[in-house]
Write the structure tokens for this entry.
Amino acid sequence: MMKKTTFSITIEILRQKIISREWPPGSRIPTLQKISKELAVSVSTVREALRTLESQGNVSIEHGRGMYVRNDPLLLEDPTADLKELGDISLLKLLEARLLIEPKLAALSAEHATRTQVKQLRALADSMVNQMKDGGPFLDTDLSFHHLIAESAQHPVLLRMLESIYPLLSEGRKQTNTLPHMRTKASHYHILIAVAIEERHSEQARQLMHTHISDMIDALKK
């Protein structure tokens, strides 16, 4: 179970790196070890995720030379294409949308998450605290954490709603993570949310997620 969940999240994150052009067409992909450390997943999970992306025509793995993004990646249609027609969506609107969806997902996760998913959530929360202490990037860990909550909630419609704004979320986090104290607060909220889900405290998980996102909204309005 864990393999599939971690695996699907890893594929999604790597695909977003290509869609968002963090990894531009033709560019060399970082080593398996580097990606594994950044995402806090095993090297074998990264290897399999990249093989899947290769079979889908997004990357090319050249033995002895390295791994590259294809110049013509056959990407899935960008799920935000329709949203982009609305013009630039403000970070505030994005956070308000998250406030409507994610507290409910956290509550459902406390009811439905498997033991494996619970352990993985805690590992991601701990990883974010460590990455923050080291001053390293934790953007992907942050996204993985919220995506795993959404997946473990076992509510496919809400999951699809969240995934449809995923590329926008990635961009939004780059901005919210620069707000004063936001990195520290976010990582502590993640630990508390993971513990509430582990203890099956549905209402507490909902409330913590609500406060976590409201906190960012308040900081943004200042």
About this structure: The two ends are 43 Å apart (CA to CA).
